[in-house]
Amino acid sequence: MLDGDPIEAAEVLIRAGRADDAARDLRARLAAGRGGLLARLTLVKALVAAGDSKGALEEAREAVSLNPDIAVAVLALGEALLAAEALPTAIAELQRALRLDPGLDRARELIAAAWLKAGEADKALESLRELEPSPQVEAMIAAAQSIKAAPRSDAGYVRHLFDQFSADYDARMIGQLSYAGPQVLLDLASLVMPGRENLSILDLGCGTGLAGIAFKPLAARLDGVDLSPAMIEKARARGLYDGLQVGDLETALAGEGPRYDLILAADTLVYLGDLRAVFEGVRARLMPEGYFLFTTEAKIGEGFELGPKRRWRHSDTYLRATAAAAGLSVAGLVAATPRHEANQPVDGFAVALTA
């Protein structure tokens, strides 16, 4: 430990990129009974800077258990949860810190950062408007505006949404929303590629594996990709997939990887507006005479639009033109109802493209 104030010495080490050293010294001080709340909160800061989110959470929870009504302790817990990407819990703790101390602008800044990670631009802006202008605040405002202007749903928003829904996703989709996307695509497959089996299949936005269940009988190999780690764990537990990957589907398609006889996207492209990158990626990853089967929600007229449920709608003319530009042919495009909302059918399309 550097000479002088041990807390300032730890801060110096953190600023110098030696957070591990600061954490070691602070742990020793606390173990010897020579540190209080400030030492523990500085330890949390050091562990976050060192990338030890598990250790930071343990220390932050200990600080809050000993000081449940101290705003800065609750703030530290919120920051540790944010570093661990436990976004809903982080936001709740940061809001609690603000209730304890309404003047705690650091909590407002971190709440905005959490909403940005979750892709919730409007909620981030709501917090940022309460802060004094600064380069950091201006950068976060610009990031929020970029999310709002993007021609697709933010990846953070999609991951946050499905991480939250993963526990009861199947019951919600099948029971409440009458979700039929996988069966719609299986029926379309029987029309456009009858008799095909022993296929290598990639399930884009595989979720918990509902499309995997439908298409497993046709698969010699079944791979899946999804943004949500929690959904991937649910899919892995089914034992259906040969390979599972946490990732953005545009990035996954653009990278190096195997080619497939069939690529699926059931209720997945509703989180993307501009589909050019997806179609181009699919074209590169399809085997000769391979197929891309997907559902969308329907837009009347031209182009695509963001609907009131934050799901993108695509017109049939847009789908046909974008497919042609990517070198894909339309083997089938039919009206379909992939799901219901408020007990009303959602107008959509089931589409088959071929290489």
Characterize this entry briefly:
With 355 residues, the chain is α/β, with parallel strands linked by helices.
Structure description:
The chain has 355 residues and is an alpha/beta fold. It has two domains: 6-148, Alpha Horseshoe (Serine Threonine Protein Phosphatase 5, Tetratricopeptide repeat); 158-354, Vaccinia Virus protein VP39 (Rossmann fold, 3-Layer(aba) Sandwich). It is built from 17 helices and eleven strands. It has helices at 6-15, 19-31, 37-49, 53-66, 71-83, 87-100, 105-117, 121-128, 135-149, 155-165, 169-176, 181-192, 210-215, 229-238, 249-254, 276-285, 316-325, and strands spanning 199-204, 219-226, 243-246, 260-265, 286-298, 304-306, 312-314, 329-336, 340-341, 344-345, 348-354. The strands form two sheets. Strands 1, 2, 3, 4, 5, 6, 7, 8 and 11 form a nine-stranded mixed β-sheet that branches. A two-stranded antiparallel ribbon has the order 9-10. Strand 9 and strand 10 (344-345) form a beta hairpin. Helix 7 (105-117) packs antiparallel against helix 8. The longest helix is centred in the middle third of the chain and has 15 residues, at 135-149. It is elongated, with a radius of gyration of 24 Å. It starts with 5 loop residues before the first helix and ends with a strand.
Helix content: 40-55%
| CATH architecture tag of the largest domain | 3-Layer(aba) Sandwich
C-alpha Rg, in Å? 24 Å
Distance separating the two termini: 64 Å
Task: Please provide the ordered H/E string of secondary-structure elements.
Answer: HHHHHHHHHHHHEHEHEHEHEEEHEEEE
